[in-house]
Known about the structure:
The model has no long low-confidence stretch (mean pLDDT about 90). The protein has about 300 residues and is α/β, with parallel strands linked by helices. The chain contains eleven helices and 14 strands.
Amino acid sequence: MIEVQSLSKKFADHWVLKENTWSVSEGKSLGLLGPNGAGKSTTMKIMTGLLCSTEGRVLIDGFDILKQPVEAKKRIGYLPETPPLYEEIKVIDYLRFICGLKSVDKNLWNNQVDRSISKMSLEEVAFKPIRVLSKGFRQRVGIAQTMIGEPKILVLDEPSVGLDPHQVYELREIIKSLKKEHIIVLSTHILSEVQQICDDVVILDKGVVKAQGSLEHLLSSRRVGQLVEIKLRRPSEKILEKLSSMTGVNQVKFEGDTLELALSESNDEGLDLYLNELIKHNCGVRSVVQKHQQLEDIFIEVTQ
Length: 304
């Protein structure tokens, strides 16, 4: 389990983190989100013992990362945004080197390396120098080194940055498979990735936690009313004014041939009234789609 308690960090006169409190329990994965400069990487560096907090603390399985660093760090595998790779050596030799750094029993080196290579599907490049690998394979090697020592927690900072769509998909599937054995803390700007991988979410903005909780809870608790997307053949200013003045319509947006209604209630009868107005004004309704709120909507709302 990870517990972040009243965590604050100050550089000179600037607070980059202020009173952050959240936790991740066994068997869960958490998406740490926020705009650039929100404090995500600073949080991860404090969690992994690379930075000291100004106030508050981080507990890893009950061990304080500052007061009991050896015990806490045994339980963490960390992938920074730029993986710490030695380009001139082979993948398998690099992973053996990491075994030594992490003080893994030498009798277990082969087992640990083989296991990491298998989990990250690195068999075809295991005996190649890291410098010849693609960006996607380098990221896999970076994650493979986090698993050496069999840590309970994997902290991954922007693991899919710079990858093409195929590589992002492959890496996402690998990370999803790791959830069975590890608590995962994932920082990324790809919000769809978080929706597919993570159970819980923490959203930071200017060092402050703006939203947190299970993904399911955040999506359901912030979904107010209904969003409806209507494609029209012949929109008019009069109908936009008419809809805006009707009871139950919070907002009317129009772009191209698409009208978006934000309704105060999810009510099919109310929607029928608005569609009847469009038909009455001969707008030519082509399609009606009820939209579901996405993590992106929440992110924009809380970090505006």
